[in-house]
Amino acid sequence: MSQDVRPIAHFFRLIERGRPPQRADRSAMGTLPTRAFRYCEAATSASGYGWWIFPPMDIQIMWDGTDIYWHYDGAEDWLKLMPSAQFPGFADQFDANAPAELRGYAPPFLTALPEAGSLQLWTGLIARTAPDWHLLIRAPANVPLPGGFTQYEGIVESDRWFGPLITNLRFTRSHTPIRLRADFPLLQVQPVRPLDYANETLSAMTVSGPMADFAAETWEAYRGTVVEPNLHPDRAFGAYAATTRKQRRCPVT
User: Fold this and answer.
1) Which residue spans within the chain are E strands per DSSP?
2) pLDDT tens digits for 147-200?
3) CATH number of 9-201
4) How many helices (H) and strands (E) would you count in the chain?
5) Beta bridge partners of 167
6) Is the pTM of this model over 0.85?
7) Where are the domains of the chain?
8) What's the whole-number average pLDDT of the chain?
């Protein structure tokens, strides 16, 4: 990227212990089947869209049906969230670096939410995006997660809101420890424009049917995409992927 080009996303690392954000990988950390990686442009494009965010350290979390507990290397025992907990040693580090009027306002690392079995986790980051760019925060696309929880998705207006980059988890099982690894992505953040999810955009849709009313060009599009390739059994695999990648290399001017 040219030095004159402003980045779309700027991540501020308040907790420097963890792995920094990185570009999401089209192979989903090598977990996509080889055939999908080679021929399924839809899967690889989704996998590589955005940036991966990692937990700032290895931790284990557990819900007993009522309370949430957590553990990390160096802790003597499981710790109960009451309802929040700071990242080990971070509060002192924050106060040593922040302006005097901001001391004592270090973001919590973990917070037990009022909803049963729900946990908020801070990544140790704050994100700022270029004007008119927001961030969709979600689970990593096509990456197998450890299980035992689901993640809420959210869109943050990070071009104006400068606060902790967090995720909200909901436990789907109790009495079983769940490990979050510092070397395994927990989140995928994806740049979106406000217009992408504006009401006028999402209202601009139509539905056609029954099939008897389909126009000739609709059936012709189906023929070109579905039927025509099957009339050539010796065709090369992955024609759609090859064509799409070629178009990306040769933009229209």
Assistant:
1) 9-13, 22-23, 51-53, 59-63, 68-71, 79-80, 84-85, 110-112, 118-129, 134-138, 149-151, 154-156, 164-171, 178-180, 187-192
2) 999 999 999 999 999 999 999 999 999 999 999 999 999 999 999 999 999 999
3) 2.70.40.10
4) 7, 15
5) 121
6) yes
7) 9-201, 206-249
8) 92
